[in-house]
Write a structure and sequence with these properties.
heterodimer; A: alpha+beta; three-stranded antiparallel beta sheet; B: 95 residues; two-stranded antiparallel ribbon
Chain lengths: 478, 95
Amino acid sequence: MNWEVVIGLEIHAQLATKSKIFSGASTAYGAEPNTQACAVDLGLPGVLPVLNKEAVRMAARFGLAIGANVARRSVFARKNYFYPDLPKGYQISQMALPIVEAGRLEIELEDGSSKIIGITRAHLEEDAGKSMHGDFHGMTGVDLNRAGTPLLEIVSEPDMRSAKEAVAYMKKIHSLVQYLEICDGNMQEGSFRCDANVSVRPVGQEEYGTRAELKNINSFRFVEKAIDIEVERQIDLIEAGGKVVQETRLYDSDKNETRSMRSKEEANDYRYFPDPDLLPVVIEESFLTEVKSTLPELPDEKRQRFVQELFLSNYDAGVLTASRELADYFELVTEVAGGEAKLAANWVAGDLMGALNKAGQEIAESPVSAEMLGGMIKRIQDNTISGKIAKEVFDAMWQGEGDADTVIAARGLKQITDTSAIEPIIDNIIANNPGQVEQYRSGKDKLFGFFVGQVMKATQGKANPQQVNELLRQKLSG
Amino acid sequence: MSLGKEDIEKIAHLARLGINDADVPGYVRNLSDILGLVEQMSAVETSGVTPMAHPLDARQRLRADEVTEINQREQLQANAPQVEAGLFLVPQVIE
């Protein structure tokens, strides 16, 4: 039987506010345990939550960016369950009336096609603390620094049909929240997390199969692997006559398998009700207008501009706008290089990204700054160096030998553009290779490359290639 | 609407309350009576009325995004039964 895979994602993005969603405690990562957990975060009696305006603004930014309805009135509710890292016994979240509803996002697939993924809703909620099952005499240690950190939970429609589509969607959201500067996107630190709802159904069947929820898969690679392995499990199960049970499953990346988290099952009765400590959140039109006016250029808009105004290929534009940092880097290179967008794109998407990948580094860690790369391209442009010599200059900059001008001067790489300097070299080569000259003149055109090579060798690659070609043609024909 | 014994046991479990079996019939009666009282509301015509989320007809005040809290871990952990390396210690929870 042929099966169709149905996937919906729930993404938790930690909002990049300075303070928590309902208290004035810091959200900075990596502090000593419990030094950023105040009375509100600890759920001490008598405290009251007060909503962080910036969290509301960030949720609105996201809503506007995905063409969603930003609710003029949204309501916080209590989601009740017991766990030691949730001191109040409930999580403040949004249920019936979320702040963002009905948006959409276009994703690009590997074959170059694109697809619209519906976003059902995005709601504000508070994060829980962290439990540590280390060496505490058989007890569990609890750090509540993270408790109360604002989260935006972004819930997609079950619109994805393969693990690859799910990854493309997740990457797009990841890029978008960083463009919007509402989340740092740091997956190692847990700022961006993902749960996947996965089910299968026979091709052609209208109704959805029973789904399993895969929890906390925290890298793009694991999302793809976890979904693939879960799909395989469900199909094997059904084909062997079994039934998929609706449950929460945990992905084990070491064993590459998913396994049931039975403990979560009975706790699923969350008994949501409106939180009496918080009033409805009302958003004025003027607030939205203001938020709209501060939206940055979004990835899709930027890509379009790169294609239409900078004449980049659709592919290059896609690569260069995948993250805001990379796009900013590229634009700065282009600016420093005096508007040489095509050349800048080739160097950024080619040599630079190649070197970064090889070193396992991010663009922000690049030893070659945008100013340095732009400066080097300017030297290609004004014929100080050839494109070939530029590779040597780039490597030297990467090794920390300074900017392009420093490297060119220190290594004596300045291109020879003085005809009177190149001419005697060519004359010399022609005089020393009478046999080849003879063959060339009798029609063996291929030998032209040999002469170019000789000139380059004699000048250590520093002769201007166009001039060498021109002069050689003249002299060889003579 | 009336509750059964299982409902009471489930509610008690969800709320992590230990109850005596002998008390269950009393809870069934009392809680069912409360629901019965609330049920009178069903007779009221409410179509066209937007449900309130709060008894006060007011809107949520918003706070500026500023860190105003200082580290008070020592005082805040003074009441905790057990603390180590800055962490609250609780009976082991294993997933």
